[in-house]
Amino acid sequence: MLGVFINTFIKFFFLLTPFFLLSTFLSMTKEMDGSKKRKIAIKSTVSIIAVCLVLFFIGNQIFAVFGITLDSFRIGTGILLLISAATLVLGPKGEQVQGQSDDIAVVPLAIPVAVGPATTGALLVMGGELSRAADIAVAIAAIVTAVVCVGFFLFASGFIERVVKKQGLTILSKVTGLILAALASQMIMTGVMGFLNRD
Hints:
Distance between the termini: 31 Å
Low-confidence stretches: 94-100
Number of helices: 9
Structural class: mainly alpha
Strand content: under 5%
């Protein structure tokens, strides 16, 4: 169980693109004072947890309603994740949306910066895969822990910015992109092998 917890934690920690989220958070809250930033960080963390849990639990229902197989969803999710990884490595195009109130805690910070299409797909796949109560409990604990760790990054954003600087955040975002690319490749390969191994 501990191995499953650690693997799920690491996977979702990087799926939430913490360093890209942090750099976005800093750019959107640069005119705010410390207490305002902390309030938004907490609200964003709670929002991300709520969105992740909802997506996790409706996976089976979505597959049943639309007749989607788990392997096809793995491939689609892997492709989206690969695009997200490329964006992190190569850099996003266009200007980031600027916000002036704590509404940014939900949109765009929680959705779609943290929980984008790839993260959504991964949550739906995991929710569709797991059936045992013990496995579900471990997965939920790992996902919530990963979100809380990302939330801590936001809460301590001022300190982190002073330590690693803007260039450091950029480098960390690119490293995250490389890890996500590897996860995407594995997800696509698993889906393809699932199709090939069908009787």
